[in-house]
Specification:
about 90 residues; Alpha-Beta Plaits; hydrolase (chains A, B); hydrolase activity (chains A, B); homodimer; CRISPR-associated endoribonuclease Cas2 (chains A, B); about 35% strand
Chain lengths: ~90, ~90
């Protein structure tokens, strides 16, 4: 499945949430990560993020059956793309 | 089509980009808006955002054939949902 994670967390917890997200997904834009995950990986990612955040934080996971159903249009600067070799 | 817009723009331009986004989509989380758009509406939204931002800003539009292909999992606070009556 293809997952887009968007987080809005307190500045105290941004580094931790980003660090967790990067272990599973590719950072593409400020507070946005993307990538292919198995259902088990997504469950682990969510469990780790849930432990790191507070109830006032907000995180959304957009879960798609595959990258193929998704079109991504961008404006402005492209910071990174999943699958890009750095 | 179902559209998720995520923006990362300079603080000087946040209010303008949010104002444009809200005319087409529903705000769901800091810097994230969602909703159903026709291809023509998406084209207009992108044209308006393109005029409002600078090359250092970044905006991503995730474009899906329909809301039905998308699962949205959330953690923490749910701020708003498209279709919710306020």
């Amino acid at each position: 499945m293809y997952v887009v994670m968007v987080y809005d967390v307190s500045v105290d917890r941004v580094a931790k949430v980003l660090q967790i997200g990067r272990r599973y997904l590719t950072w593409v834009q400020n507070s946005v990560l993307e990538g292919e995950l198995s259902p088990a990986q997504l469950a682990r990612l969510k469990a780790e993020v849930a432990k790191a955040i507070e109830p006032t934080d907000a995180v959304r996971f957009y879960v798609l059956p595959s990258r193929a159903v998704l079109r991504i249009d961008t404006l402005g600067q492209q910071k990174n793309e999943p699958g890009q070799i750095l």
